[in-house]
Amino acid sequence: MEIQLNYIEKGVGEPLVLLHGNNESSTYFIHQINFFSKYFRVIAPDTRGHGSSPRGYANFSISRFADDLSSFLDSLDIPSANILGFSDGGNIAVTFALRYPSKVIRLILNGANIDPSGVKPFVQIPIKIGYAVSSLFANFSENAAKNSEMLGLMVNEPYIPASELNSISVPTLVIVGSRDIIKYSHSRLIYRSIPNAEYKTIRGGHFIAYDNPREFNSAVFRFLKKRSETSI
Fold it and tell me: Quick one: residue 168, left, alpha or beta (phi over 0 = left, psi -120 to 50 = alpha)?
């Protein structure tokens, strides 16, 4: 069942969609919305069950979120867009590019992973513990149920074979923090598996778009501008 996603929109021009991470909202991208809206039509939706978007009754999964994004773009009469996804938003972006390739102009993957093993153990182990505990109490507590659902996205998803990334033909930028929670080898695997990809490291941790917006925005803008000029 389709739902109406809450979103922020600013600027005009070629669409640039920003997809936030797990248990976040579109406000994570405040520095990107203000910067990129000078050059693009920036659209930052809240994922189903995140921010101010309703939960609905459909399954809570990365694939469901990708389908939501397709319906969302259709509702705005946007046939294709540049997609920038952060963390779980990056996982949604990968899934979306695989399921709806004609709807992607260029792809930016920030701190994404294609399976849970791509997350460093010091982060993933507490997530697994939190998921196990919250799942035990999910039937007795609304907060526990929500935590279980959110953490479950990181424990159980995604599972995308690296070989499938070979079908992504659009220009792609894989951009990560120098101290990211995603394993360096995993980010490089994603980069090497996408035929038309570039790789960029920015100083900082997982949240470089928020913590180091000047370098992050500059790198993404150079990618978008260069690739735009190349396609003319």
Answer: beta
